[in-house]
Design brief:
Elements lengths: L2 E7 L2 E7 L5 E7 L4 E6 L7 E5 L2 E5 L7 E2 L6 E7 L7 E6 L2 E5 L7 E2 L24 E7 L7 E6 L3 E4 L17 E6 L7 E5 L2 E5 L17 E7 L6 E7 L18 E6 L5 E2 L12 E7 L2 E9 L3 E5 L7 E6 L5 E6 L1
Antiparallel strand pairs: 1-2, 1-26, 2-3, 4-5, 5-6, 6-7, 8-9, 9-10, 10-11, 12-13, 13-14, 15-16, 16-17, 18-19, 19-20, 20-21, 22-23, 23-24, 24-25
């Protein structure tokens, strides 16, 4: 595989690029603030957006250089770039709000209907003291309908819009209120996946109804999820125990006691091994699949390792570079 991994973390972005000779070059890019999320623009090869604690940034050269992309003064926790309409981007923030740009980040407007969701006064996050304010942790656009969006709150709700974010549902029953990752399938708009505090949840009707498959899943603190691009019924989550050691045990480096799990259709969850540490002492904060390569899965761990499987997670190898502490990671193919 020839491409670039970008990893968001507290100090900026780490970039790993594989050169012509097969060696990897890792560089650090200080962006002046904590980076919470990354999103690739499907219409512009090499363009990627970053959400920071002071607005959004954009790179047009695969993460080498960055420029402001609006939202200054806002803590941007999630970003979603439309696969349908060039220039359309959604941003989720702390405190919980959703903004939309239709010109690639030059201007933004708040989607005020998000503030009218019933029950939002009860949203609270246990993750970021001392203010405990909730935030939009997950934000995703249907690959089948440009007007269908889902948003996940840590901690509060998973909600859905059918009109491009003008109005929103209340919490979708069966979804996990403590949302950590929320994604649509890359091409099938029926499938939506969630990992959160409580395990994993899935929708097969575009986010309208949800269920929580639990058979075989002996860890309840889910963090990352991903789905195979050719087989939407095959999906993965990373999960650790719900126990606390000052913070959830899954976040304790060296003692995360976590696994990567795979679910295939109606079968039970399977713990994946095939070369992975058993258990994994460092949580996989990111799981990625490759739209151009069914069966391929990447896992970015809190200790900076990136693991790769080319056979749906049956066997794994650790790639020969380290990204530092992995937060949110994206893959840019050439």
């Amino acid at each position: 595989m020839k491409g670039v991994f970008l990893n968001a973390h507290d100090a900026g972005v780490t970039r790993a690029e594989r050169g012509p000779g097969g060696t990897w070059n890792v560089t650090q890019h200080d962006l002046g603030d904590r980076v919470s999320c990354l999103a690739v623009d499907p219409f512009h090869p090499g363009r990627v957006y970053a959400g920071t604690h002071n607005g959004a940034l954009c790179s047009d050269d695969r993460g080498l250089t960055w420029r402001p992309a609006g939202m200054e003064g806002h803590i941007v926790k999630s970003l979603a770039v439309s696969p349908h309409l060039p220039g359309v981007i959604y941003a989720g923030t702390k405190p919980p709000a959703v903004f939309k740009s239709e010109d690639g980040g030059r201007s933004w407007r708040e989607l005020e209907g998000f503030r009218r969701i019933r029950g939002r006064r009860f949203w609270r996050s246990p993750a970021e003291p001392p203010d405990w304010r909730a935030y939009v942790m997950g934000l995703a656009i249907s690959p089948a309908d440009p007007d269908v969006l889902v948003a996940g709150i840590e901690f509060g709700a998973v909600v859905r819009s059918e009109d491009g974010g003008r109005t929103w549902s209340n919490h979708r029953k069966g979804a996990i209120r403590d949302c950590h990752t929320l994604i649509f399938h890359s091409s099938n708009g029926n499938w939506v996946y969630e990992a959160g505090g409580g395990g994993a949840a899935v929708s097969r009707d575009g986010g309208l109804t949800w269920e929580r498959p639990r058979e075989g899943l002996d860890r309840r603190y889910g963090w990352a999820c991903a789905a195979d691009p050719a087989r939407p019924e095959v999906w993965y989550i990373s999960a650790g125990p719900l126990g606390w050691k000052g913070v959830p045990q899954a976040h304790v480096d060296g003692a995360a006691n976590s696994y990567i799990f795979r679910k295939a259709g109606g079968a039970a969850w399977e713990k994946l091994s095939g070369g992975l540490p058993q258990p994994m002492h460092h949580l996989a904060y990111t799981l990625l699949t490759d739209s151009q390569a069914p069966g391929h899965v990447y896992a970015g761990l809190s200790n900076g390792q990136v693991w790769h499987s080319s056979d749906y997670g049956d066997t794994w190898r650790c790639l020969p570079f380290n990204l530092g502490r992995v937060g949110r990671m994206v893959l840019l193919r050439e």
